[in-house]
């Protein structure tokens, strides 16, 4: 029988990607990478924004709570006003474990600061801290930044007999005058030649203290108002 010759099928040469196809593939990959990067960037920005808002809320809550605690512990003391706002700073005397503490709230730049003196049971020392607190340079080192990004702050009083909140700097709500440095000692004073203690009676002092204190903070998100009712056992 005649032998059969098997002819192999023709071989087709291997064909690779053309330059145009490679460029198109690279372009598609670049577009996908850009879309993925934008998605990740949006997630990161959203996370950072949420963390920033949470931090701001925490700082705001801490500031308001400390403000309320200071006013809740407000205590009259001879020699210095129990509560006084001069437009730049609010000063108050409050109870502490080891005596009395002078607290100063003030806004410097766009930041609200709180400063507290060491606790003392001596009128002369409290008067000395009061005079020192009149200058920002005297308390800057120990002042704690409480809240930033403020454009303005204001304090209002609710006084007995009034039916509205009024500016804390008005004459109707001014507490006792601040002590004068170098004034001679008077009977009943500290006896060390420092500023004499205030001789205003408890009844007069009580009349000058407001029934409530309103704090208004101007924040980027809008104004925040906080009212604190003062107890009558100061």
Automatic annotation (TrEMBL):
Residues 168-213 are annotated as: Disordered. It is found in: Cell inner membrane. InterPro entries: N_methyl_site, Pilin-like, T2SS_protein_J. It holds the Pfam family N_methyl. It comes from the Bacteria. GO terms for biological process: protein secretion by the type II secretion system. One of its GO terms (cellular component) is plasma membrane. It is a single-pass membrane protein. Keywords: Cell inner membrane, Cell membrane, Membrane, Methylation, Transmembrane, Transmembrane helix. This is Prepilin-type N-terminal cleavage/methylation domain-containing protein.
């Amino acid at each position: 029988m005649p032998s059969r010759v098997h002819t192999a099928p023709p071989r087709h040469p291997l064909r690779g990607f053309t330059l145009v196809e490679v460029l198109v593939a690279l372009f598609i990959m670049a577009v996908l990478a850009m879309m993925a990067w934008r998605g990740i960037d949006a997630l990161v920005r959203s996370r950072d924004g949420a963390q920033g808002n949470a931090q701001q809320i925490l700082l705001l809550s801490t500031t308001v709570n400390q403000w309320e605690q200071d006013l809740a512990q407000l205590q009259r003391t001879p020699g210095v006003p129990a509560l006084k706002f001069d437009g730049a700073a609010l000063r108050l005397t409050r109870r502490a474990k080891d005596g009395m503490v002078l607290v100063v709230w003030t806004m410097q730049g766009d930041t609200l600061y709180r400063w507290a003196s060491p606790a003392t049971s001596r009128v002369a020392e409290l008067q000395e801290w009061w005079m020192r607190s009149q200058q920002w340079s005297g308390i800057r080192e120990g002042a704690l930044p409480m809240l930033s990004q403020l454009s303005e702050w204001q304090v209002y009083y609710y006084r007995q007999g009034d039916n509205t909140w009024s500016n804390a700097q008005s004459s109707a709500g001014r507490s006792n005058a601040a002590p004068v440095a170098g004034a001679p000692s008077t009977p009943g004073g500290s006896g060390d030649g420092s500023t004499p203690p205030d001789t205003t009676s408890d009844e007069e002092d009580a009349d000058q203290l407001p029934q409530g204190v309103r704090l208004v903070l101007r924040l980027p998100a809008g104004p925040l108002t906080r009212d604190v009712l003062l107890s009558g056992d100061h």
